[in-house]
From TrEMBL, chain A:
Transmembrane segment boundaries: 58-77, 98-115, 121-140, 152-170, 182-202
Membrane-topology descriptor: Multi-pass membrane protein
Pfam families: ER_lumen_recept (PF00810)
GO biological process: protein retention in ER lumen; protein transport; vesicle-mediated transport
Protein name, as recorded: ER lumen protein-retaining receptor
GO MF, any single term: ER retention sequence binding
Localization, UniProt: Endoplasmic reticulum membrane
Organism, as annotated: Cocos nucifera (Coconut palm)
Annotated signal peptide: 1-25
Top-level division of the source organism's lineage: Eukaryota
PROSITE patterns assigned to the protein according to its UniProt record, in alphabetical order: ER_LUMEN_RECEPTOR_1, ER_LUMEN_RECEPTOR_2
Length: 215, 10
């Protein structure tokens, strides 16, 4: 464990807590893509299949349970909570996430470190996580006004993987000089996808104006 | 490259 990775995990946790707080406090999920949230549940379920089999550390196990629990409860709120589900506008959240799931799964079958169930699912989850934010970004482009909480949520979500990139650089030079192309390239793509969001988010923050993404 | 420290991240 190094400071970059801890910062990454805490940023990730904060983003999810922020979203859960918005949904519970405002009883609204306006501006949030259910498609992206469902993709994150798939990402966590397929990445943490070894939760019950492999014990790395207390921290690792507890965080996995927290990520699984919070992501599943967010989808539950958006799908089944009597008040929150009324605030979900499925007409604007139209990104067909099967177009992300299938290619990522096929790619994981073709490009992986080992052709085992655990390894292929882990690889699939990395590829899927890299593109999971797309439905949310498309939704933001369609939203006239993006509320601050949603903007902050997406920003923190993008920032966490940037910390992980620093963590991988650190681990490569300081720890075991182990090349890990799959997480590295997936993480690089994931962070790159946020690039234009980061640009508009920081610009709106500097100019103290409402966050607006060009359509 | 042992499997362990590949999957030890979240």
């Amino acid at each position: 464990m190094n400071a970059f990775r801890l910062a990454g995990d805490m940023t990730h946790l904060l983003s999810i807590i922020l979203l859960l707080h918005k949904i519970r406090a405002m009883k609204s999920c306006a501006g949030i893509s259910l498609r992206t949230q469902e993709l994150y549940v798939i990402v966590f379920v397929t990445r943490y299949v070894d939760l019950s089999m492999k014990y790395y550390s207390f921290y690792n196990s507890i965080m996995k349970i927290v990520f699984l629990g919070t992501s599943i409860s967010i989808v539950w709120y958006m799908r089944y909570h009597k008040v929150v589900k009324q605030t979900y506008n499925k007409d604007v959240d139209t990104f067909r996430h099967i177009f992300l799931i299938l290619p990522c799964f096929v790619l994981a079958l073709l490009i992986n470190r080992a052709f085992t169930v655990i390894e292929v699912l882990w690889t699939f989850s990395l590829y899927l996580e890299a593109v999971a934010i797309l439905p949310q970004l498309v939704l933001l482009q369609r939203s006239r006004n993006i509320d601050n909480l949603t903007g902050n949520y997406v920003f923190l979500l993008g920032a966490y993987r940037a910390f992980y990139l620093l963590n991988w650089i650190y681990r490569f030079f300081i720890e075991n000089h182990q090349v890990r192309w799959i997480p590295w390239l997936s993480g690089l793509l994931q962070t790159a996808i946020y690039a234009d969001f980061f640009y508009y988010y920081i610009k709106s923050w500097k100019n103290r104006e409402k966050l607006k993404l060009p359509a | 490259t042992s499997n362990a420290n590949l999957h030890d991240e979240l």
